[in-house]
Each structure stands twice: as structure tokens, then as C-alpha cells.
Amino acid sequence: MTDNTTDHNKGEGAEGPDRVIGTPSSAEGDRLVASSADPHSEHEGPFPAEETHARPEEMQRKGEKVAAAWFTLAFLGGIIFFVGYFAFSSTEIAEPRIAQYSNVTLGGGLALALFGIGAGMTVWARRVMPHYDVSTPYDELPSSPEEKGSFGDFFMKGAAESGFTKRPLMRRTLLLAMAPLGLAPIVLLRDTGPLPGDTLKHTLWKKGMRMVVEGTEREGEATWIRAEDLGNAPGGMISALPYVQPTEEHPHGLSLNEQAKTVILLIKVGEDEWKPGMTEQQLNWTHDGIVAYSKICTHVGCPAALYEQGTHRILCPCHQSTFDAADGAKVVFGPAHRPLPQLPITVDDEGYLVADGDFSSPVGPTFWDVEKED
Amino acid sequence: MSRTTQAPKGLRATGNFIDDRFHVAKSGEKNLRKVFPNHWSFMLGEIALYSFIILLLTGVFLTLWFKPSMTEVVYDGSYERLQGVVMSEAYASTLHIDFDVRGGFLVRQIHHWAALIFVASLVAHMLRVFFTGAFRKPREINWLIGIAIFVLAILEGLFGYSLPDDLPSGMGIRILQGVMLSLPVIGTYVSMFLFGGEFPGEDIIPRLYMLHILLIPGILLALIVAHFMILWHQKHTQYPGRGRTEKKVVGVPMFPAFAVKAGGFFFFVFAVTVAFSAFVQINPIHLFGPFSPTSITSGLQPDWYMGFMEGALRIFPNWFDFTIFGYAVPTGVLVPALVIPGILFTGLAVWPFLEAWITGDKRHHNVADRPRNAPVRTGVGMAGITFYGLLWMAGSNDILSETFSLNLYGTTWFFRFAIFIGPVLAFVITKRICLGLQRRDRATLAHGYESGTIQQLPSGEYIEVHKESPDEMVHVLRSKEPLDRTDTEDVDENGVEAPSARGLRGRLRTALAHWYTKDNVSFEGVEPHSGHHGQHEEIAPEQAETATR
Amino acid sequence: MTRNGETVKWITARRRHPLAGYVVVILALAFFGVGYAYVAPGADRAEAQTLATEATGDDQTDVARGREIFVRSCASCHGPSGEGTGNGPDITDVGGAAIDFQVSTGRMPSTNPDAQMPRKASMYTQEEIYDLVAYYEEEIGEGPEVPLDVPGSAPERSNFADEEAYEAAKAEYEEAYEAYVSGADDVEVGMELYLTNCAHCHSWSGSGGALTDGKWAPELDDASPRQIYEAMITGPGQMPAFNDMIIQPDEKQELIAYVKDLQNEPDAGGIFNLNRIGQVAEGFIGWTVGLSLIVACAIWITAKQRAHD
Lengths: 374, 549, 309
What we know:
heterotrimer, A: 374 residues, alpha+beta, Rieske Iron-sulfur Protein, 3 domains, 4-stranded antiparallel beta sheet, flat, C: 309 residues, mainly alpha, Cytochrome Bc1 Complex, Chain D, domain 2, 12 helices, elongated
């Protein structure tokens, strides 16, 4: 097995009638190397002359010039990069306009430098170096039967000598010893998180909890949402969260985990627009035409927030599951299966909207025991 | 041109130093003489390799500042618009890279563009290998490694996309979590363990960070090295042509020409990536805003390589969701997110073995097939591309709907049907085109090529003059192999069924083999230019070659 | 026939040219490009336009002129007293803000009552719209009023007799705009309100998005702060309403300032922002332009060279 391309005579014998590549056919016998009538005699490259097509000196000289021009351009690109680096200080680039200038000069300079080198090298390879059509045999892949036989023989003898097959007690106890080690990593991963338990089935919402418009930082009486805040006419909507006393850690009172489960859409639907699919209970869970649904899609958990007031559709922008707000958030299109969980709401003594308990079903993507009561 | 017989002293000393310790002169020379067939489509894999190197370089730079932490901070950095906003440290530190580190914005964009180009070039490379049959024996193992690289690259990209904790990236994790929850029995456990509790928790970004910068790139690097070593050992396939046989590879030697060309190509790949990053904004996380589990944007998309899964999630209906003993099995999530990619990647992985089983072809192949000469394979490939492409388009149906004012549900329905019809159509059309090309090849081989010159015969008939094809073309045309099964015949000369053709498997295989080969145009007995009008009396190339010997 | 024959001959003669393949590809790309530009409705929607005249107070309105406009342009669909007809809805309770929004964004008067109207140049100057609103409020109905303290559209040169008056009006407008936008000082509030209540339709960048039934949420690029405000309090089309109690005026100011600041911010990442569409555009460009450029380099490197030249 040899890769040696100089070894042509050997190679050819085995290959049959194929012609050696690059062997000048009678029609193209005259090579155009400018300096020499018989290029073969002067050939000094690493590969045989018949596989090497040298460039005429004139072409090489031109190629050198072009390559040098590219390399010079690349150098200039590098300079631009450095100028760009020092022209904009690290305090200035916080301004987006300056950041753009900085990005363009740094990147433009660098791209020019890289492209120049690439182009120069290409010109070098194409116009200065000779063009090759070198051939070399593919390796014969399967080993010869003798080699295979010898290997197999050796291996089996060695295996027998080791006693691995002959001594079952040792072998089996070794396998036994390995088993706990194999399981160890799985056990070690146990503490990566708590067991699910029923955490996925409950949220923070409790009877009497007031709600706030998500993102607002109001004070005094305006902090909480009143039923009349959604206006008299149907068509209003707002994204809301339960109100929790702000803490040091969470300025809005809620951690992201809690926000992810408690967020609701409050939607004002006209009294005459409810569809017959709404059960008595679901209607009881509304207040004055206001209905509260979980904002988290039951498909894979994106916020299903796109509410069309004319069609009462709540659409999830991720995968276009569509729920009918006037029909208990039943799925009317798309991949989701369960309706959006509804939050029972009512008003407290002071007229603020409050929850009347937790969601009607678990929030978020459907999981294995989602419909099991605990 | 003076002859250098000996290397300069310094070089020789270094060489000797190394050789004294490793004995590498012989194998070194052998490797420098390595031959690489010359074709642009053989550089696609190199694009992937170089993009990966760019990713490693830029990735290391980014880790210098990035803080994989979900601790909430109030941003008081130098990017004015978001000052005072509550965000995670991960997001804040990404803003720091963008707006406080000179060149940080550029490097982050290079990293992202290189990631897109990395996966894109992997796909392009894989398609080239598939359509030219370069996965055939002896290269099946490398094909499998390639698929592993592809899968890991997608995961790597998904995790990287999730790290800055901006609005779309957090939604990517959310969808990932939703998919995990849908797993029967173990779903909630997997999700709680990976996230360290409920979504989003505080652990997921540090954990994804570890996977993104250590584990997956480590495995990727190992696989890429293995892929490359196998390629090196087996040598590259080549396109058919004069002198290019199953036994002999023709091309450019590693040293000096190929080394310079490949080196130059690295700079080209890098240059294009950097030029993109300099001028085209990508993933502007500072404009998206930080992640919040309660916020969402329209037109939300993953990076392109996840698009097919996004599309599957969008168009797969909820009709098959069921409950078993009161436990929910949301097939509307499971099938598109796990089964469809599973089928796609498994299909890719088993194809070389399936094809070899069907055709019974156990020979080594070093000369690439022309896609037209394997019409069923090419058809299946095009069907696969169509399937993937339709899913990918379905993943941006909202953008399509908005851009072209189409009915949103209408686009969903369109894709629901197209996903079945499209691949079948693609298969049939591709196969027909291939067969048509085969017929034309046969005619060209027999009659020479159509010259475009019209002649009027004395009888008044017009003919197009066919000219003798060049030698190279004849070689290419003659590379078509007979596509018959090459091992056992179904029936031996006595009309007795071969054992391998009996039983269910045997019959299935016979049927598949028939399907695979039935329409192929046979080139048997076609002599080059044999059907020619007779004005050329040159020796057939075959004879010419024997003559030179 | 002859011409056809010649064309075919011309093509036949050249189809074997080494560049023929590239030419076909370029032609195909051009075809799709032009086809896209023709099909895409974005072109006319995206057409930048601004509204006429500076914002004036209520005091100079001309109710008579407003009536004239109403009778000419509105009554045919909405009825002579705004009670609605088969072609147009009842507008007696939509309020002056809705009138100003619909007319100033060019959506009304509509040429097709059944379809969603894209934004276009208004048929009336701001003064005429004020007159219309005054007439509406006097004779037709009531509802949310035009938020006059929120800056409206920028003045347009064509509505001014001389450069000086225009410059002055422009400066005044810019000052008011600047004051309104910079009056918002809590990005957190504006951002959260925008991202939780608006972005799911209008997108993070305010470039709009798809709705069901072939409708769309329009892009906000050209919308003036006042128009955004009016849209929020009146809920045009499928958009839900956000009155001043549920999102208070100062919070609306934060929200509007957030989206306007974001839209006006230069793109730090480069000159081309791909219309801020995001990942779909990035993937598309990465494949078509990025990979093509690299492959072009590969073709240069590996292009066949004649053995002896």
C-alpha cells in the first residue's frame, strides 16, 4: 500500500488500461513554457513533469504583482481596523450611532484584510504555482485474508490466555462491580432539581387577591385594577398580574417563576356576546363582562396574548393556537388542545377586581398528569 | 530557477529534531503528497470546518465578559435607552459586550453569522454528499459522524441562541420546556431537573452555558477531527472524468498547491462572515429587550436551522391528542417536536445502509455518482428537501401571511396539505428529469453533442449537426453504472428462487430493488459516437488509450 | 413566428456558453425579485408620508367646513347623522379621537368598506380634520377626545407659503415632540407595557404582524405619538382598547416614548437592518447571499485551469 505518486510504474501495472493523467497526448505535445523547448529536462518540482504544468515566467511575474497588490490591500485593511479601534473610545460606543460607525470600520477593515489575504493566496496558487493533475491510488481497504487471519488468531489466543472467557466467576463479579458505577452518574443528577409534585398544578392566585396592570408602578388607590377601569364598552384588554407587596429582591413583588404562572389577560366582552359554550360556572367566574384567562398558551407555553376584539380570538404568536375568549377560551384553531385556564374573578368591598380562587385548570403546556386531581 | 537540494539549515535542524523523536519523514512526505480532487462542491465541508474555527475563536472572546447568570439586576451600564430596566446578568453582560467592549459588537455578530453559515454549510455539504452517493461504502461511518455533527450543531446553536436571555431567546427556552413537559410519564421530571425547578428558574442559563461552551463543542471538535481523519485515510471521492477511476484519485497535491488554496479559502470564509457582521445587523438583543415570561412579540422565530421544527409545531393539528387512563398525551407537541425530527435524522442515518441493502451493492465506491444516474436516490433527496423546506416555510407562515397579505389559517392549511403532496410531486418530477437527462446522455454518447448548427439536407430535411463529444465528456457519460442488483439474482438459471428472495424480507427487498432500478436507462452496448453520421473517423478513446500503452 | 424562430436560434446558440447557467440563475432571481416587489403589498403600505399642517388649537375650528366634509365623505356610509348603514358602522360613540385617527392616517374615507385599509396619505389637512372633529362633537356623537397635548404629525412643507413659516412650525413641532418623548423617564414601565400589551401584534420593533383572516397589525413607523395614543383609546379594527384608566396618560407617554425611541435608534449592528424582521430575514440572507459569496470564492479557487497557459 503506497501513496507514493512517484512510483508510477508500480501503480499503473495494477490499474489496467488507464492512461496516466496529464500525459501529453500527441495533439498537445508542445508545452508552452516560455523559457524552454523541452520542459521535461528542466523540471525541478516535487512532482513528475508530466503531472506538473508550470506557468510561463511572464505569467508568474504578473501573478506575483497581482498577489502583492492584494496583500498590500489586506495590509491597508488591517490599518483601517486599528484606526477604527483607536478612533472610537470604549465610552463613545455606547451611543448606537457611534457603535455603528465603530462596527463598520472595525469589521470593514478586518473583512478587507481577510479578503485581501484570501485573494492574494488564490492568485498565488493559480498564477504563480504550477497547475497539477497528480494521481495517486486509493488504498485497498479490506486487509488480506492472511492479515485478517493472523489478527484473529492473535486476538483469540490472547483472549483465551487472559482467562476472561474461561473464568466466569471473575467475569461476572467484574460486571457486577461495574453496574453501580454505571448508575452513579444518574443518581448524582438527582439534585439538579426538585420533584414536580403538584407544583405545576397550582399558582399563587388566592381568593381575594387584587391585581395590577403588568409593568405599572402606581401608588395609592390607583395601584389596583377596578372593574370600571376596563371601560363601559366591550373591546378592552389588559395584561395583569396579582398584586404582591414589593420586596427588596423583586421590585414588582413577583419572581419570574411566579409571573410565568400567574399572568392573566383581562378581557371585556359584551354581555350579549357570550357564546352558548360558556357554562353557568364559567359565566359566574366573570364579572360585569370581564373575563380573566391565563396568558400562557397550553401548547408549549408562549404568552397567548394577541387578542382580536372583533372576533374575540386570542391567538398565540408562536404557533397560532387560537382560543375563543367569548367561549371559555376553547381552542378554535391550531395545535393547542386544552382551553386557556380561566381565573374566577369578582370584586371586593372596595370595588377592586379580585381573584375568586385559583385557575380552573393547571397553567401552561399540557403535561402527563395535567388532568389528574391530587 | 536554481535547484535546491537541501533545506536551509534552520529548517533541517527543526525537521531533524522532530524526526529524531517521532520518525515522521516517510509519513510526512506521504501526507504532503496527499491528493485532493479539485471541485468547488468539495469545499462545502471546508466552509463548515472554517466556520467552526471562527466560532471557537469568537466564542472564547465572548466568554471573557459574558456572565451566565440569571440573577436580576437593574441595568446601569452605558447603553442609555435601557438604563433602569430590570434584567438578568446574562442580558446585562451581553449589553456590556455590545456597548462597552470595543469590537465586542462585531465579534458577537461574527459569532452569530458564523453559526448560521456553519449549519447552512453543513446542510449544503451533506446534500452534496447525498446526491453524489459519496456516502456509499466505504464512507458510511463518516456519513453517520456527519449526521451526529449536524444534530449537535443544531443543539449547539439553539443553546447559544438562548444564552443572552433576550426576549426571543427566552421564548426559545420556553418552547423547549413545553416540549419537555409533553413527554409521557417523565416530562415533568425532566423539566424540573433541567431547569432546577419551575420555568424559568435561575439555573437554566448557567447549565446551557456549560453545554454550549464546553460539552457540545468538545464533542463536536472530537467528531470533526474523526470525520477529517477518516476522510484523510480513505481519500476524497472524485467526480467521473478522464483517468479518474475507483482505484485512482486525481487532483491537486496537498503541498504546495492545495495547502495554499485551502488556506486562502479560510480567509475567504472569515472575510465574508466578518463583512456580514460589519454591515448587516443580526440578532439585535439590545432592541429586543430582556426576557420576560409574560411578554411575546409577533413574528417570533428561531434561527433558521430550528425553523423546520417550528413549522412542524405550527401545522401539526391537535386532532390526535389523547388521554390514557386520565393521563394526557399531547401528540400535537410530541409528534412535531420529537417524532418528525426523529424520522428525518434517522432516515438520513439509515439511508446508506438501506440503499446498499436494496441494491445489494457491496462494492467500494470512490467515483461520485452523477445525481441523474441514481434517479430514485435523487428523487428521494429532493422529496426530503421539499419536506424540510415546506416545514421551514411553515415556520415563518406569519411572516409570509403578513408580507403577502394571506389568510393566516389559510397558510396553515396550505402547508398541512403541501407537506404530503409536495414531497411526492418533488420525487416524481425529479425522477422524470433524471431519466430524461439519462436519455439525453445516452443520445449524446451515441451521437455526439448537439452543436446548435442546423443543416438542410438535400432532401429538404433540417437536422442539427451533432459533433463528437470531447474525450472528457465521454468519460463522464460513461461513468454511469448499470443499476442492477449486483449480488444474487432473484432467480437462478434453473428458475429456482434464490434463498435471499424468499420470505417477507426477501420479497420486500426484491420489490424495492425493482422500484429502485426499473426505469433506469440502460447504456449497455452504447459505443461512443457509434450512431454518428459518419464524417468523423477518429479512434474511440478506449482504443486510443490502449494505443499509448 | 420568424421572430420566435430567431429567438430560439439565438438562445440555442448560446445555451452552451459557460456563463449560460449563471445568466439563467440571475434572470430567475431577478424575476422573483421583481415578482415579489409587485406582489408584496408592503410597498404602498411602507410609503412614508406625513400629515399636513401644524397642530392648532380647537379655537379656530370651522364647524361649517367640518359639516361639509362629513356630508361629502362620511355620510354615505355612516349615515347622515353617523348612525351607520349597511356599508359602515355606527360612529356615534367612537369619539373625536377615532375620527382624527382614522382620517389623519388616511384610512378614512375608505374606498372599500369591507377590507382593512392600509395607512396612506390623508385626504385632508390637519385643520380640516379639526373642523370635522368639531362638527362631529357638536352634531354626531361623543366619546374619547382628541389628545391635543400629544404631538401629532410633523408639518409638511407644501402646506406653508414660505420656507420661514415652515421652518418655524417644524422647529415648534420638534420641540413639542422632543418634550413629549423625553418627558418619559421610566423605560421599564414603557417597555413592559409595550411588550406585554402591544408587541404580540405590532412586534418588538413596531413593524407589525399578521392577524387572522388576512388582516394585519400595521407597522408603527409612521404613526405619530398622537395617532398611537388615539389608537389605544379607541381600539380601531381588531385592536382592543386601552382607555386612560387602565393605562394612564403618563404611562401611555412612557409606552409611546419607548417604541418611538426604539424605532428612531440607529442600528448599532450595521447599515442594513433587514427591516428589523429578525431571524427569518437573517436566515434567508445567510443562505442566499452569505453562502453564495463563499461558494463564489470556492469556485474562483477551484475553477478549471487549462493545463498549459
